Amino acid sequence: MKDGKFITMAFESSCDETSVAVLADGREVWANVISSQIDIFKQYGGVVPEIASRHHLENINRVVDQAMEEAKVTWKDIDLIGVTMGPGLVGALLMGVATAKAAAFAHDIPLVGVHHILGHISANYIEYPELKPPFMALVTSGGHTNIIDVEDYNRCRVLGATRDDAVGEAYDKVARVLGLGYPGGPKMDKLAKEGNPDAIPFKRVYLEKDSYDFSFSGLKTAVLNYLNTEKQAGREVNKADVAASFQQAVMDVIVDKSVGAVLERYGNDPAKSAGKKLVLAGGVASNTKLRAMLEDACAKKGIELFRPSPILCTDNAAMIGCSAYYKYKEFGADSMDMDAYPSLPLPDVE
User: Fold this and answer.
1) What is the distance between the alpha carbons of residues 88 and 101, in angstroms, rounded to a whole number?
2) Which of 27, 73, 132, 250 could disulfide-pair with 77, CB 3.0 to 4.6 Å?
3) Is-above-0.90 flag for pTM?
4) Closest C-alpha among 30, 186, 145, 6 to residue 80
5) Which of 58-67, 161-170, 199-208 bottoms out in mean pLDDT, i.e. has the lowest?
6) Interhelix angle 217-232/167-177, nearest 10 degrees
């Protein structure tokens, strides 16, 4: 405890960001230090797991010290340690889990493992102090595209998931063939603003009727086929039009399905109207096109939209600390036998 507040220290290392945060009472961020490896992986065109793990090992103690200095806390002030235990790159996860377990053991502090996706959703609790479940969440990132019915802080139901490429992964692959470099998402978003979203009629993939799943592999292939056809015909490609048309095809499906899920679950029953909310989460949640389209669609359907600041959309430890706080309040501490789980499933409602 410090100043009468419950203090959580959290670790996030699921991919290529080494992050440590300190929070008070679950939602008040005192420090959120993020050491990114983006510049390292630009030369490779993507994350190399072994290199990411090595840099986590090199960075994590320095990031811990910086977070504690910014938060003006000592180990005696820390009431809880939270850490991402999955999903993610197993070597990267292990760096965070091992450090968190060592700190918890050395200082006799309770330890809680957090699901990375629940962490992303929890970023909104930090941004919006008034927000609480139930609500619908749209999680979009390099590894995930999910529509999730969040019934409580620690319970949810996955309504839709990607069947092949996640949206962020599709963005990166299309950016690569356009020669935009890594990371592809922000570069595609920027270039698309200069193009015509109706220039190229890429197909919208909705899958079966009433399905909330996603598939972006076919769209990615359509972009590759278009570029090859134009090259063989000797025609110059307008990269901005390609980026804008690809992005429009992606976002039309994402917006339609996520808004449709809110209306089906919470829109028709007055008793459930408190849940008529859509929460954005994940790295692609900072995409300007997605935000603009959802703002418009939600306003037309009377849905309250919540979207975290860009810094809270990326992988960060503050969101993990918030999720750890609510998990600890309900279930208490995890065992020190806790491990890293690269394919950890979400805690579905039974």
Assistant:
1) 18
2) 73
3) yes
4) 6
5) 161-170
6) 10
